[in-house]
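Troubleshooting log. The previous structure file for this entry was overwritten by mistake, so regenerating from the original sequence record. Sequence copied from the archived sheet and checked twice against the printout by T.R.
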Amino acid sequence: MKKGIKVTLSVCLGVLVALGTFAGVLALNGTCKEEYVKADTKYSNWMQYLSDDTLLSNTIIPGSHDSGTINMKWVSETQTDTIKQQLESGVRYFDLRVNKKKDNQYVMYHSSSNGVDFLPILSDIKSFIVAHPSETLLLDFQHFKNGSAGDVKSFVYSSLYKNNLLVENKTTLSDLAYISSLTLKEARGKCVVFFGDDSDLVSETYIFARNNDECTKSGMSLNSCYVSSYNKSSSSEYIEKGLPFYYDNIKNKISIEKYKGIFVLQGQLTDGQLIFGPWSKENKHQGNMHDYIVSLKNSSNLSLTNVIMRDFINTDKTNDIIGLNTYKGQVKTTNLDEFQKFFTVE
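Regenerated output below.
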């Protein structure tokens, strides 16, 4: 066989192998996801078991990363449940990113992918908090695209603020001090709204400021530190180096600012090569992250733990996170046995 033909055959074989691998990745990410299983009603009202004087910033809360990405293409999808379903599964913190399209349609987005409409999500949030007055929701509008921030603020005002469903700082305290001292009794039946991307709209009394990914700003009401190199590393390296770094970051901020505010621990990995996608990364990470969360019940970091954010959140994941409140002494003594029966950390 001539050399040129051999080279051509080798190239063709390499292409076929690459295409086969790519097809396998698509199959893995597109067909192996769990179907939604309706959650037990205990997850819809789990905050009712916590004492009224518990600080919101001291409550351990399940959160979802890129909450509105259901039905996006596989490289962008980090959740396979709707936000309504996530609410029913016990999620109380939502990472929300809104894009304003050219036709003035408002959709959720992640990177270059657009997803479901935003306004029905806001309607579901309103309906849920009205129907479950024992709960508190944290709405973290991390990023805005194509100038959507002002419109989102108007939608939030009309849907939530005008119906007395938002936490509002009417005191002389700074927003950071106010959020740090906010009790569940004061926050029940309401949402706390955070805006990012340096929005000037945080001057509103019902919108609180979130920090940037590097957490380099002071006086922010919510800190959710994200260091790309850590989140793009392997599961074991992330847990060994990334998570301790995030805890050290919030410890340092408290030592300087005297207040913690809301602390969001990023529990997800990032597919830096955009090859295998979030689902594949989470499959490899889930067992390790579960063990890490369980270990927090005996860790000095338990006192700092607040929101734990996860990809592909479900009741298995929310159960571990909610159950940690037992070890913080947050549960009403009259409800402790029932709470521990429902929410176990093991």
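The chain is about 40% helix and 15% strand. Archived copy saved in two places this time.
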